[in-house]
Amino acid sequence: MLRSLGQRSVTGSDEDPRVAELRAAVSRLRRELAALPAEFPDRGIAEDELAALAAMAVGGLPEIPRLRRSLLLVAGSIGSVSALATGLAAVRSAVELFGEPPRR
C-alpha cells in the first residue's frame, strides 16, 4: 500500500499515504483488541487511545507529538499482551512514517 513518503496513493484520492497506513494499522489493532477475550487493567486506556488515533487519521494530517503520546499510552497499556504484538508494531511503524516531533 505504501511505497514511499513522497508518493500519493493510486486510488485517485489526494490522501496522504501515511494517513492511510495509520488508519489501516489502527483499525486492525482495534479489531484485534475487540476480539481478545482476556481482560486486563489498562484495556480501557488502550481502547480510548486507539479511538483517538483513529480520529486523528480521519481528520487529515495528525499532530506528531499527539500521535507519539497516543502510541506510548497504547504500548504501555497493551505492551505485555503478546497476542497484540504484531498489531502494535504495525501502529508503531505507521506513526514513525510521520517522522520525529519538532525539537524544543
What does this structure look like?
The chain has 104 residues and is an all-alpha fold. It has helices spanning 17-35, 43-58, 64-78, 85-96. Helix 1 (17-35) runs antiparallel to helix 4 and helix 2 (43-58) runs antiparallel to helix 3. The radius of gyration is 14 Å and the shape is globular. The N and C termini lie far apart (33 Å).
Strand content: under 5%
Poorly predicted residue ranges: 1-10
Q: Tell me the radius of gyration.
A: 14 Å
DSSP summary: helix tally: 4
Characterize this entry briefly.
With 104 residues, the protein is mainly alpha-helical.
List the defining traits of the structure above.
mainly alpha, 0% strand, globular, disordered N terminus
Topology:
Elements: H1 17-35, H2 43-58, H3 64-78, H4 85-96
Helix pairs in contact: 1-2, 1-4, 2-3, 3-4
